[in-house]
Q: What sequence folds into this?
């Protein structure tokens, strides 16, 4: 089961970072592989909201399990063909915000050989996306 963890510090207040990072309607501005997002139910975002996301050729169906404004987003669902859970936590440090992103992909024993490839690919993609968000927020 691959676990991908990312940590990034953005030189902006927590309110600004959380607002942009959790606005699923405009997330493609800093996640270039995200080509479509549909909020199936629960707009505005809250626990119980269902998302359908297309990232390149991969479809992701996710349920928002926990949504603590300016603190944490927990989602679970299916990433391609694998179950996943993802926790994104936001911590304020005055005029900077630290984001901790933890993605667990449950590949199962049948796909053990695929786990290292999937981990490396997702780690690279997520790192680039968070760097793009940082660049976008710190230049405005």
A:
């Amino acid at each position: 089961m691959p676990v991908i963890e990312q940590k990034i510090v953005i030189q902006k207040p927590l309110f600004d970072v959380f607002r942009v990072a959790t606005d699923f309607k405009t997330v493609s501005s800093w996640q270039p592989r995200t080509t479509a997002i549909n909020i199936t139910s629960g707009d505005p975002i809250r626990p119980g909201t269902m998302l359908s996301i297309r990232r390149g050729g991969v479809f992701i169906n996710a349920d928002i399990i926990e949504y603590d404004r300016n603190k944490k987003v927990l989602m679970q669902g299916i990433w391609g063909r694998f179950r996943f859970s993802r926790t994104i936590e936001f911590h304020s440090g005055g005029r900077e915000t630290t984001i901790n992103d933890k993605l667990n992909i449950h590949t199962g024993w049948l796909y053990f050989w695929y786990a290292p490839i999937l981990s490396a690919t997702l780690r690279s993609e997520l790192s680039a996306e968070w760097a793009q968000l940082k660049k976008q927020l710190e230049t405005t």
Observations:
- The beta strands are 3-10, 34-41, 50-55, 58-68, 72-79, 82-92, 97-106.
- The chain has a mean pLDDT of 92.
- The chain has two helices and seven strands.
